[in-house]
Specification:
There is one protein chain. The chain has a single domain, classed as Alpha-Beta Plaits (2-Layer Sandwich), CATH 3.30.70.1700. β2 and β3 form a beta hairpin. It has a six-stranded mixed sheet. The protein is of the alpha+beta class. The chain contains three helices and six strands. It starts with a helix and ends with a strand.
């Protein structure tokens, strides 16, 4: 089965974040919101929204803008902030989009283009002190990007 463009973009965001923390094996990266027992620290990546707007008058081409949530679950405030700031700084550049249709990891790495980050935001999820042990320290990073073929 051939993966469609949007799924290739989702996988590229996931592997971009995974590669960013590849030197820190204690950080678990999950595709989608964590559904099993949460191991802290964890970073979850989930697609949020896809917007389509007219791009050229008289043409059926549309500009697709994608959004993702990157949730950080940490043991303390410092860990949450370190992970969050690392992600924010890494997302200042574009996210390469690769063709994963040849397998995982791809035998031949083919870059299709990149996701140009348009907006980037980090929100701290405030947890009342009496619930921190159960809910952990959290932040949510949201990014909006559009695909650029170069």
């Amino acid at each position: 089965m051939t993966l469609i463009q949007e799924r290739l973009e989702d996988l590229s965001v996931y592997y971009f974040i995974s590669d960013l923390f590849s030197g820190t094996p204690s950080i678990k990266i999950v595709d989608g919101f964590p559904e099993s027992i949460l191991t802290v620290p964890t970073i979850s990546i989930d697609a949020r929204r896809l917007d389509s707007t007219n791009f050229e008058m008289g043409n059926k081409k549309r500009l697709l803008t994608r959004s993702w949530y990157i949730d950080v679950f940490a043991q303390n405030k410092s860990q949450r902030d370190d992970i969050g700031y690392t992600i924010l700084h890494a997302l200042e550049d574009c996210i390469p989009v690769y063709d994963y249709n040849s397998g995982f990891p791809p035998a031949i790495v083919t870059q299709l283009g990149c996701l140009e980050v348009d907006t980037l935001r980090m929100d701290i999820v405030r947890i009342m002190p009496q619930f921190v042990d159960k809910l952990y320290y959290r932040s949510s990073i949201s990014l909006t990007a559009y695909f650029n073929m170069f």
